[in-house]
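Same chain as my last thread, 409 residues:
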Amino acid sequence: MSEEFHLRSIAVTAYGPATLFGLAQGSMLPVIALSAIDRGASPSIAALIGALLGIGSIVTNIPSGILATRIGERKSMLVAAIATAAGLAVCLVDLGRGAGALLVYAAGILLIGAASSVYSLARQSYLTEMVPGHMRARALSALGGTMRLGIFLGPFLGAGAMELWGLPGAYYVSLAATAGAGVIVYRVPDLELSDQRRAAAAQVTTRSVLRGYWRTFVTLGAGVLLLSAIRQTRQVVIPLWATHIGLSPTASSVIYGVAGAIDVLTFYPAGKVMDVYGRRWVAVPSAIIMGISFLLMPATHGAVTLAFTAMIMGFGNGIGSGIVMTLAADISPEAGRPTFLGIWRELADAGSGTGPVILSLVTAVAGLAAGILVSGSVGFAAAAALWTWTPESPRHVRKKPQVTAGLRR
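reply #2:
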């Protein structure tokens, strides 16, 4: 199968829903805090409600894997689309201001976060089954890239809708994008798995996967956790440092947007490098480049130098598009793959939660510049771990232990 034919054959079924789900998230993310404040929340409570997206994902990762293992990836994506639409509908309920209105809105955000975990895991597992191993990195990098493209475009569409309908306009865009993704997923065929594969998958438990793969989770999983930590922190440091050096919110947003554009433009070449030369040749440079950009940031004192540093940061993150998914796909078992991916996502989400906490704690003790430097060191630690434990070549993927009924306890 040629590369061109293969990518075209999955363009709509795999990347269409990913782009639309990303657009749905991107259009509503900027207005979560504003919507909470509009319902009477203080800034701290609004920030807590915004964090419910991540919390919903963290508490649902492992159940998402179990769900996809039991009912299949396609049905799981449909469940996620329906749950996301329901969460958005709850967010649109207008109960005025007060504790009751905030509780209802928070429930909607939590539901959307949980649904995003179900969808992300199911789409990754589905695409891993569809794509031949020699093109896996390109396919998964493109999956991550199209999701980022949607998140990048979402705020602009949401802003246009808000000009017409106010804050609810952003949620209308999210609902429309979610409905479009659901329609595409509904028309996607189910994976054709043998009866033997289905029977083996039915016997897999979270405990059996942990017992069979605990060394991988402790070693390579640690590298993924550290990489996820610096990735998440990068989203915080640009606006923080821009404010610190006296730039306006508009300038900060423009710089952040430029970094995001560089991020989006670099995903496909990185996937090709991973497929041809190996995962390590992208995973390690991605972490190192982001670490270097963090070290450079405290030396910037104006918009131009900060924008240049942010572009380096965006490039480092962009070339790593899909690396976490690709590594998981390489080492996951065929039977019960979604269960494995649920645990893997838990490690990545733990890193995403830890990174900003490290920045916050060090900043509180030693100042923002020190916090950024320490956060940069996380990138170098990630590079060391990924260099040590990433499989050498995609053509010689480490033999995987099979999780079967014999491992069940």
